[in-house]
Design a protein that fits this description.
Blueprint lengths: L34 E5 L2 E5 L5 E5 L5 E12 L6 H11 L7 E3 L6 E9 L6 E3 L1 E6 L2 E6 L8 E4 L2 E3 L1 E3 L4 E4 L8 E7 L2 E5 L6 E5 L2 E11 L3
Antiparallel strand pairs: 1-4, 2-3, 4-17, 5-15, 6-14, 7-13, 8-9, 10-11, 10-14, 12-13, 15-17, 16-17
Length: 217
Amino acid sequence: MPSTYYPQRWFITAPDQNDDPSVFPYMPGRTFLQRKTPQWSTDVKTSVSGKERRRALWSYPIWRFSVAYDVLRDGPTLQEQQRLYAFFNSMQGMAGEFLFWDRDDNTASDMFFAVGDGTTTTFQITRTIQIGGISAAEPVLAFNGDPTVFVDDVETEVTVGQRGKVTFASAPADGARLNWTGRFFYRCRFEIDELDISQLMSGLWEGRGIDFHTVKQ
């Protein structure tokens, strides 16, 4: 079969995370994201007159993803189908948590996350989506490499803890602006307890509609 048989859109490059058992496999046959959707939870009370009272139950959204592998090779040296099976089964379906690298949304640059108060030493790193005067912040629960942290634009050493927390050796001064630069993962779980993979021909498989969403801390 000619090597040009498959469209080049299938072959997206990404950091090599395939040998990390905690990171969702990113192999050559994966297409662009089929879906990336923010989901909120709102309590709505409606009176007999039709007036509503609405209350947001969450302070930040859950992100829902759907990915597809148009091609999963299965041969003596290219065991992509088996790698995906092994990863899903190692998570025990919905039970386990894993890290997902979104090729289009994985980096923060000089991003504000907190203001010092002269007492607090441990802070939760956040990232903010901001367009003009519209902004929305959410915690970063997994780093891809250690972040670089700045106090009033001065790079400062921190200890990186679990689920996106950083600790300073001494508390940043009252009013000091804290920023960070680095890369991050989304912390996720699968939405169902089964993985649907179909065989196209001998040695070639596909996985459509692999759905998962972020978890909260």
